[in-house]
Amino acid sequence: MALLSSLYFTAVEITLSLAGLVLLLVTAWGGARVVRPVAIAAVVALFASVVFSAHLLTNPSFELGGDAFGGLYRVDGFGSFAKILIYLACIACLIVSGSYFKERGAWRGEYPVLMLFNAVGMGMMVSAADLMTLYIGLEMSSLSSYVLASFLKQDSRSSEAGLKYFVLGALASGIILYGMSLVYGFSGTTNYLAIRTAFDGGLSTGALFGVVFVLAGLAFKIAAVPFHMWTPDVYEGAPTPVTTFFASAPKVAAVAMLVRMAMDPFGGQVDSWQQIVIFAALASIVVGALGAIGQQNLKRLLAYSSINNVGFILIGLAAATPDGVAGVMTYLAIYVAMTVGSFTALLMLRDPQGNPLETFADISGLSTKRPVLAWCLLALMFSLAGIPPLFGFWGKFVVFQAAVRADLIALAAIGIAASVIGAFYYLKFIKVMFFDEPTREVEARSPLGHWVVLALCAAFISPLGYLLTIPLGDWTARAAAAFAILV
């Protein structure tokens, strides 16, 4: 029965792994003829995973969660909610990828297969209950990400992005592994709850170093300051659909992994890591906002925007309460929609020859050429800035509310004040698109898949999104309940 329960709990990872292996064989035998069916099959597998994860999240039988394979893997509302966001982001990225790579002669079946294996790794990361499971999932996700970043072999910028991501990602993985070795050495175990029990009496100097090293490595994965330096270069150089993926699904997985690590094995020593998280949150907000101000390249600007948003997410984690965890998950849900929508809009910005429009000068007067696209971008930028009544405001509100309830009033106040800086570069989009004179021709048509993804994201972050506050609040409360008995 224990084996059957374990197989049931890990059905999503098993399904995606089998789908990836089968589609890899199909790609190897079928070549270019089967790329479209392989991509469709990958989307179907990911959608089935969303449905099953939603079942685990909403089924009262699994409210208390359960362990699989002797405590290596944990099923709970937190992991299920994170997986839903991850798989939805992967689906959106696959939908908008096809036309981009077809135009460049690089649309191959390996792309959706890599996406599936990446999703398997990310799922293991967010549900890991043991350091070994976490590291296996992390490496599975990272290795496929390195290949995706350099997927355009003929593009020097893509190759450069892949190399930078590989070198710095390997460094971060080494830091995490070294921290894990210290944690294991001073606790005698790799199981999360056993580590928490071992550290309940306090952290020795060596164990504290282990905690700091683990958190530093995870901070790299979420691009938090001061481990953010790779983000603008990789986001700019990687193919835009891959950048869309990096800014959404792996970000959710890394943040969820960080939250689980902080609240499970290190949850009994909040004072040891809370100040680190507070510093990273404030530094990310300020550096992300100031770094974006001088950017002319749109992808680099959105990279700094991503760093800025990570800062707001970390404010929820700094609260170290179930309210804070719920705020983090709410922010992530809204952030995924805003990010996927923004990068999809960038994919649609091209001149009549198919060349991408990558700078502010290129999108001058966009409202006169592509008014619907310009208005969608306006809504997305205002939502990223947290301007009501758009749904992005609600994401910031819940993390600041969690901080206030945790008596981190100064942190919330500084975060609110610093968020005003970010409004400048978001408003720059509006100024350029609506008030500047056009300087370049813009392609008049975009693929249907792009419009569908953009429309769904724009609708989600519009005032209509507030209709989801009650169910979203319920789902995030279920996610936070996984830590309610621990804090």
TrEMBL record:
MF terms in GO: NADH dehydrogenase (quinone) (non-electrogenic) activity; NADH dehydrogenase (ubiquinone) activity; quinone binding
GO cellular component assignments: endomembrane system; plasma membrane
Protein location: Cell membrane; Endomembrane system; Membrane
Membrane topology: Multi-pass membrane protein
EC nos: 7.1.1.-
Record field: catalytic activity: a quinone + NADH + 5 H(+)(in) = a quinol + NAD(+) + 4 H(+)(out)
Entry-linked Pfam families: Proton_antipo_M
Alphabetized UniProt keyword annotations: Cell membrane, Membrane, NAD, Oxidoreductase, Quinone, Translocase, Transmembrane, Transmembrane helix, Transport, Ubiquinone
Residue span(s) of domain NADH:quinone oxidoreductase/Mrp antiporter transmembrane: 128-422
Keyword field contains Oxidoreductase: yes
Transmembrane domains' residue ranges: 6-26, 38-58, 78-101, 113-129, 165-187, 207-230, 275-294, 301-322, 328-349, 372-394, 406-427, 448-468
GO process terms (BP): ATP synthesis coupled electron transport
Function: NDH-1 shuttles electrons from NADH, via FMN and iron-sulfur (Fe-S) centers, to quinones in the respiratory chain. The immediate electron acceptor for the enzyme in this species is believed to be ubiquinone. Couples the redox reaction to proton translocation (for every two electrons transferred, four hydrogen ions are translocated across the cytoplasmic membrane), and thus conserves the redox energy in a proton gradient.
Subunit structure: NDH-1 is composed of 14 different subunits. Subunits NuoA, H, J, K, L, M, N constitute the membrane sector of the complex.
Family note: Belongs to the complex I subunit 2 family.
Name of the protein in question: NADH-quinone oxidoreductase subunit N
